[in-house]
Amino acid sequence: MKAAITATGKFLPQEILSNKDLEKMIDTNDEWIRTRTGISERRILRDPDKATSYLCTGVAQQILEKRGIPASEIDLIIVATMTPDMFFPSTACLVQRNIEAMNAWAFDLSGACSGFLYALNTGAQFIAAGTHRKVLVIGGEKMSSIIDYTDRNTCVLFGDGAAGVLLEPACDDNHGLLDARLHADGRGGDHLYMRGGGSLHPATHDTVSQGLHFLYQDGKQVFKAAVTQMADIAAEVMEGNGLTSDDISYLIPHQANNRIIQATAERMGLPKEKVAINIDRYGNTSAATVPLCIAELDEAGLLKPDDNLILVSFGAGYTWGGIYLKWQ
Ligand code: UT7
User: Fold this and answer.
1) Which of 113, 132, 278, 293 is the catalytic position?
2) Ligand 1 test: best mutation among 36, 117, 215, most atoms within 8 Å of CB?
3) For FRET with 64, which of 208, 210, 242, 312 sits at 20 to 30 Å CA-CA?
């Protein structure tokens, strides 16, 4: 049995942090940020009492409402995040409590920017096995909680947000999630990480003063790997499924840098109308970028039955992957 997306949802904090705002905080400028990354603004969840579970709960509520089902029908909740509210309980359990999905089990998945693709394929396995009928898969991040707003190399890139989908059995075997090719290469771990707060460097005055609780990225190294792997995986999914550029309705790529997205689209031979882009408005929301694109296309009524969608991502780990979905 195949798993299909039957509802989508998104939830973004109201507050906008624009490039102009950043100009007042650090030595940067709007032109550099837009031309090097494609980002104009991002959303920030400023309220210190709200975190990733708040955003993901908003997504779950919207999905339930759109699908018109009670929370009691949900069998499983998977939240892909690298900014959980806390180590435990999981953010997924917090969402489960908030929406009162008392028949669901729930867990978080750590796949960084590829977390949503990892989670989508994981959720689909439970549908395929026939053991679950309704699985919520959400990608959500409060990236602002791990960003050093004095570091111009990273603080211009990231934003907060969440989005997700409901997976259910597809109408037939030719619809839904048709192929998933997921990869990891742990040798990339030295280029994108957050050292502090785990069991290796638990929080101390020293870890705080050394800035170990902030995201670190070697932008150039990650860029090189991302450009290659995103384009390669897109080509791998196309070839593996006998798809030409004409067959593809939308490429839905991770939104880390518009230059990486354009290189991927070029390799696939896709015109810009077929490439989902919202990095200009939200920046890099890590696990939330791909579902945010899906939810926006869905809201705009642009996804039609039989549309072929290619999802691709690349992130810390390294992790990367591609998924081929036929909309139903
Ligand atoms: O989502 C997970 C995966 N992540 C990615 O895929 C991100 C991959 N990396 C990137 O997207 C890019 O490497 C960045 C956007 C992070 C950086 O772009 P870049 O073209 O690689 O710039 P760079 O790091 O080579 O820096 C070029 C110049 C440097 O100045 P010098 O040394 O040439 O004088 C930087 O100091 O730009 C400077 N710079 C800035 N200038 C203004 C770096 N950050 C900024 C800034 N504003 N915010």
Assistant:
1) 113
2) 36
3) 312
Amino acid at 226: A
Q: What is the mean pLDDT of residues 160-173?
A: 98
**Position 264 confidence tier, pLDDT thresholds 50, 70, 90:** very high
- Those residues whose C-beta lies under 8 Å from the C-beta of residue 282, and which sit 6 or more positions away, are 12, 41, 42, 43, 159, 161, 255, 288, 289, 292
pTM exceeding 0.85: yes
Domains and CATH numbers, the chain: 3-169 (3.40.47.10), 176-326 (3.40.47.10)
Please name the residues in contact with 74: beta carbons below 8 A apart, sequence gap of 6 or more.
64, 99, 101, 103, 104, 134, 135, 136
Pocket of ligand 1 (CB under 6 A): 28, 32-33, 36-37, 113, 152-153, 156, 219-220, 222-223, 226, 256-257, 260, 284, 314-315
Chain centroid, CA 35 distance in Å? 23
Q: How confident is the model at residue 195 (pLDDT cuts 50, 70, 90)?
A: very high
DSSP count for the chain of H helices, then E strands:
11, 13
Q: Is 171 a catalytic residue?
A: no
**CA-to-CA dists, residue 239 to 110, 179, 236, angstroms:** 29, 12, 5
